[in-house]
Amino acid sequence: MGSAADFPKIDFTSNFQNIINNALSSTPETRQAVDPSTEELLYHVPLSKQADVDKAVSVAKAAFPAWKALSYDDRAGYLGRYADAIEANVSGLQELLMKEAGKPVSNAAGELQFAIAHVRETAKLRIEDDLIEDTEERRATVRYLPMGVGVGIIPWNYPVLLGLGKLGPAVLAGNTFIWKPSPFSPYTALKLGEIAAQIFPPGVVQVLSGDESLGPLFTAHPDVAKISFTGSSATGKKVMQACASTLKRLTLELGGNDASIIYDDVDVAQVVQKIGPMAFMHSGQICMDIKRLYVHEKIYDEFLAAFVQVVKSFKVGGGGDPEAFLGPVQNRMQFEKVKDLYSEIGKQKWQVATGGEPVACDGKKGFFLPPTIIDNPPDDSRIVVEEPFGPIMPVLKWSDEDEVVRRANNTNMGLGASVWSNDIEKAERLARRLEAGSTWVNSHFELSPYVPFGGHKWSGVGMDWGIVGLKGWCNTQASWVRKKF
């Protein structure tokens, strides 16, 4: 591991430009994102167009043969040095992440530390050839070969972790990689690209920022081999449709409406302390946050009261508040969507256990909403059917196992789900019945660079991370060798 002195320091307050062929690249037009805590405009960033995309893809394509020819160990060495360089610049990245994403200190620091560890641990993964048959007459082997130019389209909620979580496996597998950050959070990505330019050969890692028109330029480009997209299900469908014209490979990690089922044998005081952060982390703006909480009717009242007290303890504040747990909604578009859901409280006469419709305050800045719990709304309510992606969620009663499984699975989403019980065998039995890409018993939103994650149904296609995710950056090749003519 290199020391901080081994890597040049990056300026995190100016000069935000694209990284193309390991060089800073400007564009005639620029744009600005907004600090969601203050609603103030942030720094100017490039507004990339077709010519920028063509140049970046051409450079990536040219760099691919030499990069794929390196061994896994050699490519892993680059990733290790990249992780060291990121860590040497972590304080500047953290300040920038707090501004662009509205993350409180603890959330921003946690994302960066997990992301750095993710790059280091991903570098340890290896894909070996699968020997299927080896006789005197023939040998059959399955190989996993890099695809070419990969593009990661990254969302605004976890711009560092989800970006590096695609970059690491893509380049380790032997692909070149172009990072397209969200227009709402482009800043850390551009600086991570600047750091990457000090580590990787030219063309291996590039970063382009732009507006909503940039993604379609990549999905339509004939020389892009794969798109890895994280975002909403609605946009994921558009990405999949756009990739069809060139038969691009793709991975889609989309929205979730995660159910968490609580049995009546749990220690309520312990469980609410664990579930509270997993439901409201990043103000509910995580695809794998708990979105629907099903509590057995025998403990429902006790659980709800304790859960409310936990949520009331969460301090709301901006990126500069070291005591804050809940920050703002990240952008005005999402803020208005979530506010519309809050407006249903009065219209539908939902019972509010804590929080409620936001009260307008003249002159108050920032996209802040009160953490809100809805008490046992009908199953066909918007708060149950839709993914809020904000700090509001329902708590619902259940009594029968078959019934709660049906209700938990009664959604187009299938990202994650959890079961909580002191009877592990019973909980595991129920978890196996849940239609989700990840299931947990007595935890939720547990992740590892070695374990893949992704969704069923409208929550995605394919999986990221681990060996499964690494293979997702490869084309599968069957190799036959006839030993005797």
UniProtKB/TrEMBL annotation:
One GO molecular-function entry: aldehyde dehydrogenase (NAD+) activity
Source organism, top-level taxon: Eukaryota
Aldehyde dehydrogenase domain residues: 28-477
Catalysed reactions listed for this entry: an aldehyde + NAD(+) + H2O = a carboxylate + NADH + 2 H(+)
Database matches in Pfam families: Aldedh
Keywords carried by this UniProt record: Oxidoreductase
Catalytic residue positions: 253
Enzyme category, top tier: oxidoreductase
E.C. code: 1.2.1.3
Family that this chain belongs to: Belongs to the aldehyde dehydrogenase family.
Name of this chain's protein: aldehyde dehydrogenase (NAD(+))
Organism: Podospora anserina (strain S / ATCC MYA-4624 / DSM 980 / FGSC 10383)
